[in-house]
Each structure stands twice: as structure tokens, then as C-alpha cells.
Amino acid sequence: MNTLTPAGNRLDVEHAAHRSLRIAVVTETYPPEVNGVALTMARVVEGLHRRGHDLQLIRPRQQAGETVAARARFEQVLVGGLPIPRYPNLRMGLPAGRALTRLWQAQRPDVVHIATEGPLGWSALQAARALGLPVSSDFRTNFDAYSQHYGIGCLMRPIRGYLRAFHNRTTCTMVPTEGLRRELEAAGFERLNVVTRGVDTRLFMPHRRSQALREQWGAGPEDLVVMCVGRLAAEKNLGVLLSAHEAIRQIDPNARLVMVGDGPQRAELQARCPQAVFAGQRRGDDLAAHYASADLFLFPSLTETFGNVTAEAMASGLPVLAFAYAAAAQLIRHGINGALAPVDDTAAFVRAAVELAADAAQRRDIGLQARKTAETLDWDSIVARFEGVLRQVMHSADAPATITLPARRHPVA
User: Which residues form a coiled coil (predicted)?
Assistant: First the structure.
């Protein structure tokens, strides 16, 4: 397999290995927006900044009149944006090719990294290629899979075609799991490299458990609390969650379901399960306390590229049940540090949920092992690997080939 570093250039690459880089990061979502792409990109950007790199963050203006704070730790460039239909709290960037061309002509970045494939991302890709800048990208959202949940399944192939065309125009596309790498490679995506995601084990931890919070949910010290965290939307497959909860209540009428998050399906879900607690969006310490105060985490989504909530729940000491997909397939060993159901097998998912609900000792043992697994997912090493890929991309500008970096193993306890 070819590498991005031609043999004749290795000494040059090694000489530059510790040089700080000027990195332009283009993303159409960023905190305080709450979603997996925004939160993980913030981790990467902050991590690269701490490692001494010169960061230029390009993102949509999130509200009218927003300006960059005078004391911002790194350069931010705000561009126009529009609310995403049905998600008024999220925005997509408008094309900004001319502005980015002028910006990068005035001061060329060493490398451009594009996190999202929307109008802003596409225009950034075109501008970077026109200027001969090295470009990497992320595959972070299964937009093609989403189409099946919104009555536009006929668009799945065209959307996949657009994503393939987008990413194949970059030197490298980073993906969070080996399973996704294989899936995309089979679909014609090229130059894929696995750079997984981490979890903040100092924020998400079992010691944040709060009996006061459980009392707000109507749960006593011994009552079972089942939790799911994420967007309340069709693509999250939440009907399976409600089926599992109903089955659990057949053996434990006092079991409580807590759903953390918001989205277009909230009213429908409340009508279907009025006894559930809908906690809305939570952040920071408050979110961490919600995780830690539950007893069982159910995550039925089949549209994730990774699924940050899986790692966050594991770090919080929760037994996680998910389909054998995305982060769960990568991190969980069934019956040891979590539980897996075959992909799209709702009956198996429900059976596994009932089994875990009925066995407190098993939940406790699995939760302890889940925490140990999460402790291996430190962000520092992941950001270092991300940086390594950027350096390879930068030095391959004239020699497009496949990136080969040592595979990083994630031990599971």
C-alpha cells in the first residue's frame, strides 16, 4: 500500500514534524450548538490549539449580529448561514468561495480541514483546490441514511454519490471507525483513514450520580432508570427505545424512562409515552449528572458514524445496549462491558434490554468494565493522531496516495 510520504521526502517530513502549522478548519456546526459534530470538532480544534498550532476556524454566524470576541483564543471567521429545516437551533453555512479565496490568498494555510459537506464545505473545497492547498475532510454524518427516515429514500443514492464526489476530491477523509471505513471503501470512497473519537472521563464519571435528580424523575434509590441521550428525531430509531421500555415495564412497573435531548419528534414521543421524563437538552456538568444518575443506557440508532453518547454513557459507568454498529461495535464486548444486538433486530434488542433490566448485579459489573474501557479513549492521543494525518496530507500535496498510519488499538476491559 502506498503512503503519503515519498521515500525521498522522509527527512524533510521528519524535520518538520514538530513545526507548528497554520490550520484552517471549516465546519458548519460548532458549540454552543449541541450535536456530535459540533462537540467533537470543538475538542479537536481546542486540542490542536493547545499543541501550539495556529488555528483559523471558519463557521456560520449562529445568530444575527454575532461577532468574534476580542479575547478569542484563536482566529474565527464568521460567514452567512441559514437555519436547517425542522432544526431551528442548527444552521448550515452559505457558500463563501470568493471570501475564502481572498482570505487564503492573503495568508495561505498549511492545510485546510473540512468537517462538513454542506454549501460552506463545498465552497471551501473548491477554493482550496483552486489555490492548490492540501485538503482533508471528515465523514461525520450519514446524510444518505437519514433520507430513509424522511420519506425521501429515493434520494439515498444521489446523496451518497454527492458525498463520494466531495470526499474523493480531498487528499484524505477521516472516519471514526474501521467498520465505517470498510463500508465507505466498498461504496467507492478513496483515501480513508480511521481517526476515532475520545471522551472526557473527568467530566463523565460515575461519581456525579445524584439522588436529588433521580427524585425529580420520580425514581427511588432502588428504582431502575433507563436513559437515552440524543436528538429526538426519526433517524434515531426511537420507536425501538419505546418498545424496549414497554417490555421492561412488564417486569418492573416502577422503571422510569428519561430522554435527554430535543428535536422534531418530541411531541410525538411524549404522546406515545406520557410517563417518560423529557429532560430537554443538557450540557456540561448537568449532562454528566444526568448520565450518572441512570442505571441502564439504551441507544437504538442505526444512522451514526460514531455515536459519542455511547462513550459518554460508558464513561459514566452505565451498561450500554446498542446495535452492533458504529462506536458500539468498536468499543463493546457483549456481556463484558456492554451489550450488543444484531443490526436492525428489534426483537433481540428488546430481549437484551429486559435481561439487563432484570439483573442489577450484571448491570453493576458491566458498568465497571464500561468505565475502564472509556478510560482508554483519551482525547490527547486522538488529537495527536489527527495532527499526524494533517501533516501527512500537507506533505502529500503533490503526491496523492493512500494514507498509511499505524492502526491505533483501543483496548477494552
Answer: none
